[in-house]
Design goal:
The protein is α/β, with parallel strands linked by helices and 292 residues long. It is 56% helix and 10% strand. A 5-stranded parallel sheet has the order 2-1-3-4-5, with helices on both faces. Helix 8 crosses helix 12, helix 9 packs parallel to helix 12 and helix 10 packs parallel to helix 11. The longest helix is centred in the middle third of the chain and has 19 residues.
């Protein structure tokens, strides 16, 4: 919040009466304001939408969207679950939750496409393909992404360690062999985990190539990483939207398969033979069993 508050404080004496009302509202209720449209913020403060837009430019932003992004970046990792529910009521059309949430996810994927560059992506894939061991670290809801990525990497590479623990002892016990021949993939989204930062910092200190998958360049893990891949995430009530991060991970998996095409083809030929031998999948015309 400090940068935004500094801007407000340094500009405060020159603000109009209505703009000062906006400044006071944002300073005390930024968790609500960050996800309001300019019109909605003006309605809550008691000023016009144009006054809100002028306020944004008055304190140094190009427009309201930039001010809104600044508020969102600074508070997303600080919102409690209760605050998330409260904020969601202003953002989601509960008359049509399905369309509201799906459209939000579509926007996040588009933003992810805009904010990544192919150079960083290729660099990350090369590091993964050429590593001795791939370490993947994530906690809480981000662990679902780690498990998905790890599942396919275990099939493709076989040299994968997925780490999920908040115990420092267990974390370092699982990481102590990591070195410059290895790669660490740290996945972290708001609310950012201190354990992920510690694990990535340790990996970097041991010389490992560190890749961060996160939502913003302001994320604490970006300072540690050799390579940063951005996937826009957002909250939908108490849950985190991880659609864009999962899409990015899909792209990583596809790119690694392409680089190791011959080896992966042989691996999956063997797997298909095993799956077929033990009837893992239902064949056409069969009703199947109770096995999941």
């Amino acid at each position: 919040m400090q940068n935004l508050l500094d801007r407000i404080n340094s500009s405060y004496s020159g603000l109009s009466k209505g703009q000062k009302l906006i400044a006071a509202y944002i300073s005390t209720r930024y968790d609500k304001a960050a996800y309001m449209t300019a019109s909605k913020l003006g309605e809550n403060v008691g000023v016009s939408e144009s006054t809100v837009v002028r306020f944004a430019t008055e304190i140094g932003y190009e427009g309201y969207p930039e001010l809104q992004r600044a508020m969102q970046e600074m508070i997303r990792d600080k919102l409690t679950s209760v605050q998330r529910i409260d904020v969601a009521s202003d953002r989601i059309d509960y008359g049509d939750v399905l369309s509201s949430v799906l459209n939000q996810d579509i926007k996040l994927i588009k933003k992810t496409m805009d904010e990544n560059n192919n150079e960083s992506f290729v660099k990350a894939v090369d590091a993964i393909v050429n590593s001795r061991t791939i370490y993947i670290f994530a906690v809480k809801s981000s662990f679902a992404l780690a498990r998905f990525l790890g599942y396919y990497f275990e099939l493709i590479f076989g040299n994968v360690k997925i780490i999920e623990t908040t115990s420092k002892t267990q974390m370092y016990e699982q990481l102590f062999r990591i070195d410059k021949q290895d790669v660490m993939i740290g996945i972290s989204f708001p609310r950012y985990s201190s354990s992920t930062v510690e694990a990535m910092t340790f990996a970097a200190s041991q010389g490992a190539h560190v890749i961060a998958i996160t939502d913003s360049m302001t994320s604490p893990v970006t300072k540690i990483a050799d390579c940063v891949l951005i996937a826009k995430s957002d909250m939908a009530s108490v849950v985190d939207s991880l659609v864009a991060p999962l899409s990015l991970i899909n792209a990583i998996i596809v790119a690694t398969v392409e680089q190791k095409k011959d080896e992966v083809t042989q691996t999956f030929k063997q797997l298909e033979s095993i799956w077929d031998r033990y009837d893992l999948y239902i064949k056409n015309g069969e009703s199947g069993s109770n096995e999941q």
